[in-house]
Design brief:
Elements: H1 2-17, H2 20-49, H3 63-86, H4 91-96, H5 98-104, H6 109-142, H7 152-177, H8 180-197, H9 201-204, H10 210-213, H11 215-219, H12 229-252
Helix pairs in contact: 1-6, 2-3, 2-6, 3-6, 3-7, 6-7, 6-12, 7-8, 7-12
Length: 255
């Protein structure tokens, strides 16, 4: 346990030294600020740039618009930033040969994988909570009575779980392919497979990609409450499988 805690702390030191912590913090802080602001003022901005004589009907912005913008930003860009930052999580260790020394000192390979996953998951969670907290504050300021949109808690939790799943997939990819580009391709391929599987009606109710796409329909009332529970369970199983597979593959890797 002491070795696990020490190596996890080492990962956070690495995040700080390489500015990954700063980058993801700033990106998610920007999304937390911009999501409610875009929802609030975008109709006014659009109306200002419309040609003279042309009128369009724009509905009054609401808290739902803010949360829809939040989910869109994090699922499409925020999660992608997380994957890019983590793509070298194993490749850097392989190229520098830094693991050889600590493994010969008795640190287990399983501890390396679990520590890296823990640190990466905490990085995602911290950035996500920062973004959500800032967005919630601005949304409350603009739409106090309706800030807690129906389905919000489930949608927010689902997207967080999807981010943890991407983190686990990225770590597995890093163990298998040894390069940052290969890790990105591996993670992207598994996401594309989920998107393609989502075309099958029998698969949709269990597909983890619904965690990234289903939040908005849920809050709009197009999905029933609890619809994202099954994909979250499948995603949790996928996280466990990825980490177990990463440990098994790393045990067989020659450094």
């Amino acid at each position: 346990m002491r070795a696990y805690a020490a190596f996890t702390a080492k990962e956070f030191t690495e995040y700080t030294r390489t500015y990954k912590l700063l980058v993801i913090g700033l990106v998610f802080l920007l999304f937390g600020i911009s999501s409610p602001l875009a929802a609030k003022f975008m109709p006014e901005i659009i109306s200002q740039f419309m040609p003279a004589g042309i009128e369009i009907t724009i509905t009054e912005p609401a808290a739902l618009d803010s949360w829809m913008q939040f989910l869109k930003n994090i699922s499409q860009i925020g999660a992608f930033v997380q994957v890019i930052l983590l793509s070298g999580i194993m490749a850097g260790e392989y190229s520098r040969g830094t693991l050889i020394h600590i493994l010969t000192k008795g640190l287990s390979r399983k501890t390396v994988i679990l520590s890296k996953f823990t640190a990466a998951a905490l990085l995602w969670t911290g950035a996500y909570l920062l973004c959500f907290g800032v967005a919630y504050g601005y949304t409350w300021y603009f739409w106090r009575k309706t800030v807690n949109t129906p389905g919000l808690a489930e949608a927010i939790t689902a997207l967080w779980v999807f981010g943890i799943l991407l983190t686990a997939i990225t770590i597995l990819g890093g163990v298998l392919v040894r390069s940052s580009y290969g890790t990105l391709l591996f993670t992207g391929a598994l996401v594309v497979i989920q998107i393609l599987l989502n075309m099958l009606p029998d698969v949709q109710d269990y597909n983890p990609i619904q965690l990234a796409n289903g939040g908005t329909p849920l809050m709009q009332g197009q999905l029933e409450s609890g619809s994202l529970i099954k994909p979250m369970i499948v995603a949790a199983a996928g996280i466990a499988i990825c980490i177990i597979a990463a440990c098994a593959a790393f045990n067989k890797k020659k450094l």
